[in-house]
Write a structure and sequence with these properties.
By secondary structure, the protein is an alpha+beta fold. It has helices at 15-29, 41-51, 82-85, 93-96, 117-127, 146-153, and strands at 7-12, 58-64, 67-77, 100-108, 133-138, 157-162, 171-177.
Length: 179
């Protein structure tokens, strides 16, 4: 009987230490969408480079047999941040009055989906945060809405919509308490 590889979660606050693995696993996770401008690896790399030097950057990568199989990364956002400014309708002050954590990306390699790996990555990232609220954006139409529904089971609620760039689809903005 073969033993399944152990998954190791690693946290990074230094983008340079994680950038290569983040790009590699992103390309695997988003492979079916890489032909779309917003999902191209170069577009992701540009976003990653911007986010990696913003306040509160934290990435969590999951490894199996030393190969990256999943990731998430986040930043701290403040009241007035462009993240909140692009959200329609404007979010309640309850969410924006103090710093929040914005989960910018999360993904798991296809072979590891449905194993709880995404949730482990997510929870590990939030355990390292002090903010009261976490927010994320999801393409509600993608994958027949399965990811959007999954986030609801994790306690997230819809609070509005955002289109972060002209190449981006309209995204649903979701929020929940970090604990």
């Amino acid at each position: 009987m073969t033993t399944a590889p152990t998954i190791e979660l690693r946290q990074f606050t230094d983008l340079d230490a994680a950038r290569g693995d983040l790009l590699d696993v992103y390309a695997e996770v988003r492979a079916p969408l890489l032909h779309l401008p917003n999902y191209a690896v170069t577009a992701f790399g540009e976003r990653l480079d911007r986010h990696g030097y913003e306040p509160g950057f934290l990435a969590v990568l999951a490894y199996a047999d030393e190969q990256p199989i999943g990731y998430a990364y986040a930043n701290t956002i403040e009241h007035g941040d462009r993240y909140w400014q692009r959200t329609t309708p404007p979010p309640a002050e309850e969410y924006t009055a103090q710093p929040a954590v914005a989960l910018k990306e999360i993904g798991v390699s296809p072979a590891w989906r449905g194993t709880g790996t995404a949730r482990r990555i997510h929870d590990s990232l939030l355990l390292a945060r002090d903010e009261q609220y976490v927010t994320l954006m999801v393409n509600s139409a993608a994958g027949d809405g399965k990811v959007h529904a999954l986030y609801r089971t994790w306690g997230y609620e819809d609070i509005g919509h955002s289109q972060p760039s002209p190449a981006s689809p309209l995204l649903t903005v979701m929020v929940r308490r970090t604990t």
